[in-house]
Amino acid sequence: MLRGVLLNALRTGSALHARNCQTCAVFLPIAARKFGSVPKPPGGEEERGAAVQFGDRSTAFSSRNTYRKSSAEQQDAKHADAEVELAEPDHFRSRTKHRKSNTPYWYLLQCKKLLKKDKLSEALVLFEVQMLKEERLQPEEYNYTVLIGGCGRAGYIKKAFKLYNDMKKRGLEPSGAAYTALFNACAQSPWKRSGLEQALKLRQELRRKNIPLNSITHHALLKTLARAGDLKACFQVLREMLHSGQAVTQETFHYLLMCCVEDREQGFRLALQVWHQMLNSGIKPDAQNYNILLRAARDCGIGDPALATNLLLRGRDESGSNLRGQRSKPREGTSPPESLCVDVFERHMLAETTSDLTQETLYSDSEQTNPLPASSPSRALVQTSVPNLLDPGTCCSDVVTLASAITPSDRLALIGDLDGFLNKMSSDGLKPSIKTLTLLADVTEPSSQSVRSLIHAADQGGVKLDVGFFNTLIRRAAKAGDVEGAKAVKALMLERKLHVNAQTFCSMALVCRTHKHGLQLLTDMKTCGMTPNAHVFSALIGQAARRLDYAWLHELLLQMHQMQVSPNDVVIKQLEFAAEYPPTYDQYKSKNTYLDKINGFRGFYKQWLEFMPAQETPHPMEKFHQPEMENERDGVESSQKSRVEPSRLK
C-alpha cells in the first residue's frame, strides 16, 4: 500500500511542499532500498536524454538542506495569527503602516500646506489629534512654531499662547520665530486691549529670563503696541532697539504712523511729526507710509492749532530730534547716546502745551499776519499760501499759525492737496496704487474736477480702477448732497463695464430723498438679482428718519419682514431714535398733526420687534470652531427661533 502511494505521487509529477519534506526525507530512502528502482515521472529530463537520479529534484524546489520540526501547536498559532491579520479592518492596517513612515518633520510639511490654504482648524486637528493622540509622536519645536505662526496671522491669541505653554511643558525651547508669532497674534487680535496685556506679559517674561529680541521680534512687538495706540510704550521699544544696536528702518516708522492713526483727536499732527522725523533720519518713505498718512488725514484731527503750529512749523528747527543728527551729551551710565535723541523725539510727540512758544508771542505774531484758515470760499487763494507739510523745506515763511482743519479735504490741503500729494510721491519714485487712489477719493473735496484728476492719475500710473474706487466716489458725493454727481459716477462706472454690487446700492441709498426713490432702489436691486442687506436698509432708514417720514419707515420695515432681512444693532439704534418723541414736544399741551403719526409707528414698531429675529454679530473666532461644534450650535439656534407669521404684520 505504501508503494502504491509513492508511485502515484511520483507519476503525477506534483512538487512536494516544504511542510511535507520531513515525511519524504524519512520514507523515500526506505522505499528505494526495499523496492529497487522507482519509475520516473513522464515529461521530465529523462525525455530530453538527461540521466536524473532519485532525489535530485529536491534542490529545485528548496535551497534548504535541513528542516526543523514544528509541533501542531505552532502550526495552529501561525494560522491563528494569519486569521487575526485578515480580520483587521483595512483602515486600521493602513494607519498602522502609515504610522511607521510619519515623522514630526512630515507633520510640519503637512501643516504648512494647510496653513497656506488658510485651513488653520484642520492643521490644528492634524497636529493635536492625529500626531499627538493617535500616533503619540514626540513633537519638535518647529511643529509648535509653525502653528503659532498660523494662529498669529489669524489673531487667534488664545490658541497661540496655549500652544506656547504646551511647548514649555514638554521642555522645548522656543525660538525667536515663536516669540515673533506670539507678538503677531497679539497684534492681529480683534480685542486690542487683551492683545496688549498679553504682549506686555510676554515682554516681562522675556526680560525676566534675559532673552534678547532680534529686530524682527522687536517690530512685531512694536506692531502690537501701535495697534493698541500706546505711543509711550512704542518709544520704549524704540529705545531698546537703539540700545541693542538694531537699526531704525522704514518698517519702524511704519508702525509709529499706525500708532498715530489710533488717536482720533490729534493723530494727524502726530503723523506729520513722525513723517518729519523719518525724513530727517534719511529714510525714504514707501507707498504704505503714504497710505497711512492718508488714513490719518481721513480719520484724525489736528488737535490744538497753536500746538500744531509750534511743533510743525517752528519746532522742527528747534527740537533737533534727529536720530542721526544732533545728539545731546550722554548721561553717566548710558552707553548709547541715541536714547537721548529718542527722549527729545518723545518729548515733542507727547507735548500737551505750547511750552516753547508762549501765548503772548503767538498772539503778537497773529496780529501781524493772518492765520491760515481751515476752509475758505476761495480755494485758489488758500492754495497759494498753504505749505506742503509733507516736505518741511517748502513751508511758507509768512504762515504764522494753523487753524483747526475740520474736514478731511482741509487736512489734505495741508499736505499739498491732490496734485501736491501725487507730485511728492512721484519725486520719491513711487506710483499710486488702487488703495492710494481710493483713499484719495475718500479725502478729496467731492467735485467733478477731483474725479477727473483721480481718473487721469490712474491712467498715467497704469492703475486699473475697481468697483470699490467708484463706490467711494459715490458715497462722498451722496454725503455732500450731490445727487447728480453720484449718478454721473455710477454711469461712468457702467461705461467701464464694472458690475455694481451691494456696496454700490448702499452708497446710492444715501442719495434717496423721498419714499419713491427708496422703493425704486429696492426694485433695481431685485432686477439685478441681488437681495438688499441690513446695510442698504440702514442707509434708507437713516434718510427716512432725518425727514420724519413715518410712512416710509413703515414701508421699509414691511420690506425687511418680507425679505427676511434681520436688523443689526445700527438699524435698531436708528429705529429707537425715530420712535422717540422730540425733546420739545408735549402731546398733552399742544397738538401736532405731523408728529401724531409717531404714535402709529411706535405701535407697529413694537409689534415688528416681536417677530423679527435680530442679526447676531458673529464671533471673531467663529471660523476656527470645529464643524461638530458648529452643527450643535446651529441646532440650538434653530430650535430657539420662532417662525414669523406673515398674517400678524399687515
From TrEMBL:
Transferase as UniProt keyword: no
Gene Ontology molecular-function annotations? tRNA binding
Cross-referenced InterPro entries, in alphabetical order? PPR_rpt (IPR002885), PROP1-like_PPR_dom (IPR033443), TPR-like_helical_dom_sf (IPR011990)
**PPR repeat positions:** 140-174, 214-248
- Region Disordered, as annotated, extends over 61-97, 318-338, 356-378, 619-650
Q: Does the keyword Repeat apply?
A: yes
Query: PROSITE patterns given for it?
Result: PPR
Q: Domain (PROP1-like PPR): give its ranges.
A: 139-303
Q: Which UniProt keywords apply?
A: Repeat
Do you know which Gene3D superfamilies this protein is assigned to? Tetratricopeptide repeat domain
Q: Which terms does the UniProt entry file under GO BP?
A: tRNA 3'-end processing
Biased composition, class Basic and acidic residues, residue ranges = 75-93
| Composition bias, Polar residues | 61-74
Q: Coiled coil: which residue ranges?
A: none
Gene Ontology CC terms = mitochondrial matrix
List, alphabetically, the NCBIfam families matched.
Answer: PPR
Q: What is this protein called?
A: Pentatricopeptide repeat-containing protein 1, mitochondrial isoform X1
UniProt source species = Silurus asotus (Amur catfish)
